[in-house]
């Protein structure tokens, strides 16, 4: 729910009211709290101020909470009102419910009750605002010019506005509870069930034309829109377009006649004598194309020819002579350049047809002229693009295959209809799999593919494709074919290929189907990337993780087990005897437990991160602060950025920096989080005693700590998480003389976007 919530707390105990006013905004920063000491003051506040929710005590002098509630309800029946009392009873609760209370909550000890109260407030206000919005929407629907109805999950009307009912010749009450089939002809119902409704269920929306059935049996064409709600209801919007359809039909007939004429005169039109010596007529299109007036063209037919580009003029004159002597093949089409007086060089396409008399003799020539400059430029751009594509294809550093999967796709579609799991079927039927592979037509490979696989030439590679396949390739190819059968246009899988010299390499295959080939897969690109080195590093990392897991298991079981036993016996000893040594033992055991926790963190965090995504420090920092023992420490957040990170790992980094500042800076330390000036990172600074310059190079080493209770591992974990993200973490002096930790990285490692959030503290 967006927007602030203004709360009025009414309680005759001012300290309690102030305590509620202090805690509620901490639970939800949208809450703004005002207080009043009795019901009469509360009523005055309601008259003077817009309040979103009232929280009232019950037992108050002058007017108790029930009387206050009844008075509020007389003026505002929908205002959320929560009775928050320490003297509750079933009788009080019953009276409150009868008076229209929104919620009832009993006061308790502890601060958890304020979390519950804040939730009750926000839920009540959200529900009221939603109901008010629904009422406004319903009012708008009632006044809409379109027919609007709502169907439940069974397809029955739960709401219709008057316009909807009038369209079908019913009263609104007659339609409520009826099935939608009532207002559609029998022949339309199967179409709606088999085509329209499945589309709405799949895409949550449908728009088109349907036929409506009125109560008197007449039908009409309707513009129909369907959409589903989150509650599973179906919203229908219809309007009668019968008149519009009739007009559109007539317009379509006229347009067809116009288009037939436009086929002859798509742009400029001219009518000349058979010998081109007289011009009978030119339209405005000719004037626009050539830049000459009809009067100029009629007065001097040679005017047209003088505008033709000199390099095209001779060929055009030869064509005119062939037309004049009757040796031309009709129609005559020519493309040439002209010099337009205003627009410079233009391309023109002319098409000339003869007009014959009853004897068959040519008496006139009718022609159309079209400015094709834009088309010529597109053709030139296309040629240039084709050259760029061919250059990109050939010189691309990736090994690229261009293939035709049309026949393969058709067979896979048939196979998908017959079996449930295409991938498993292909792997279980190798002979059929090989037949399917044979249907793939390799159109081309780029030059880098030749070098990538170690072939002598493109043809050498195309003639010996079986040399690059290994037994491991069939598994990824089966998955690739299953993706194609599913209609996927992208696929990625890891496999192993064999170069022409017999050496095996790890490879990542990427399949991409352009939009233009999405229908039949006739044009597919497959790229191969050698990932042998990456796979080697992954195997090394897995071995390292196995060792770390073994270490973590040892720490967790072999150390924590005895520690748990020692803690248990210490607790028994504390109940049976008194000794000054027992608390010291407890502190030592706690320190050992913290050491084990930090060791496990170092072991299990590893040197890699999970999926990274934009993380708002404005949201994350306060959450981390709540998870740390901060005593009287103060947090200041100044314009925190958004960073690309593994949210869980970043949380651990921040919490460790906060703990370090509190442990070394004191319980009243102030910690500030903000964005670096250059926008390439963020900082966490405090106003504590700081870190001596001589120690700054060793603070991130495991075991470093200036605090007697510290484990010396917190900052080592911080550095490990930063390095796993590709960042760097360093320490310097803050503006207040304390420690300042800066997390930085280049544009690819640490992408920050300042949110320009206001400064706030905790």
What count of domains describes the coordinates? 6
Q: What percent of residues adopt helix (DSSP H or I)?
A: 40-55%
Biggest sheet layout: 6 strands, mixed
Shape: extended
CATH class (first level) name of the largest domain:
Alpha Beta
Tally of separate helices:
25
- Arithmetic mean of pLDDT: 83
Task: Assess the beta-strand content as a share of residues.
Answer: 15-25%
**Spatial order of the strands forming the largest sheet:** 26-27-25-24-22-29
Total beta strand runs:
29
Secondary-structure class: alpha+beta
The radius of gyration computed from the alpha-carbon positions, rounded to a whole number of angstroms, is: 41 Å
Low-pLDDT segments: 258-263
CATH architecture of the largest domain: 2-Layer Sandwich
By CATH, the superfamily of the largest domain comes out as: Histidine kinase-like ATPase, C-terminal domain
Fill in the CATH topology of the largest domain. Answer: Heat Shock Protein 90
- Distance N to C terminus: 23 Å
Summarize the structure in short.
The chain has 25 helices and 29 strands. By secondary structure, it is α+β, with helices and mostly antiparallel strands.
Please provide a written account of the structure.
With 762 residues, the protein is α+β, with helices and mostly antiparallel strands. The chain has 6 domains: 5-139, Response regulator (Rossmann fold), CATH 3.40.50; 144-244, PAS domain (Beta-Lactamase), CATH 3.30.450.20; 265-376, PAS domain (Beta-Lactamase, 2-Layer Sandwich); 396-525, PAS domain (Beta-Lactamase, 2-Layer Sandwich), CATH 3.30.450; 536-603; 610-761, Heat Shock Protein 90, CATH 3.30.565. Helices cover 45% and strands 24% of the residues. The chain is built from 25 helices and 29 strands. The protein has a 6-stranded mixed β-sheet. β6 and β7 form a beta hairpin. α23 packs across α24. The model is unreliable at 258-263 (pLDDT under 50).
